[in-house]
């Protein structure tokens, strides 16, 4: 059977992180929406079935889009500060990429389940990603990543009274070329 590989990058879709806030002072914190503006993915198909998939994300490409909640709206200078704190938390200079390589792809009722190693912050853990493929061209995926699982200490303020929640939601939407 013939296989074909499709490549995607930030021109084909969006990769977004959503954070929560925990702690006694959580009401003061912003629930962030962060875009990752530089990434590359490839999907290999046998007929119309995906048989391999991988993605590499450039950590330094993160951009704070929005901060919901908090005592005041998130301003432009605060977004710059949040970005700097996130890059420091992720040790972006030491670990400049996040990489995922699906070792297994299983069909599900809703689409596919990809499982494979995710390398983040110098730590590799098997991670499952739920993927939907619509009309053979639209890909959407969702996953949750725990700071703890990757030895990342969540950013905190006020002596830990407010900190980024352990679990971060990842959303991916793209159109195959």
TrEMBL record:
Q: In terms of domain of life, where is this protein from?
A: Bacteria
Short name of one Pfam family for this protein?
A: YceI
Annotated Lipid/polyisoprenoid-binding YceI-like domain ranges read: 5-177
Family that this chain belongs to: Belongs to the UPF0312 family.
Its protein name is YceI family protein
What lineage is on file?
Bacteria, Bacillati, Actinomycetota, Actinomycetes, Mycobacteriales
């Amino acid at each position: 059977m013939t296989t074909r590989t499709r490549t995607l990058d930030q021109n084909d879709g969006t990769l977004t992180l959503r954070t929560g806030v925990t702690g006694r002072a959580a009401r003061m914190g912003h629930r962030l929406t962060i875009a990752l503006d530089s990434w590359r993915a490839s999907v290999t198909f046998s007929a119309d079935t995906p048989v391999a998939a991988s993605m590499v994300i450039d950590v330094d490409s993160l951009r704070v889009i929005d901060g919901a909640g908090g005592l005041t709206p998130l301003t432009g200078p605060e977004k710059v500060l949040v970005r700097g704190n996130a890059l420091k938390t992720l040790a972006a200079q030491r670990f400049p990429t996040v990489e995922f390589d699906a070792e297994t792809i299983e069909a599900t009722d809703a689409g596919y389940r990809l499982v494979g190693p995710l390398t983040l912050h110098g730590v590799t853990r098997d991670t499952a990603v739920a993927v939907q493929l619509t009309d053979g061209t639209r890909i959407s995926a969702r996953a949750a990543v725990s700071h703890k699982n990757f030895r990342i200490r969540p950013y905190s303020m006020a002596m830990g009274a407010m900190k980024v929640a352990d679990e971060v939601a990842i959303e991916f939407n793209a159109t195959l070329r």
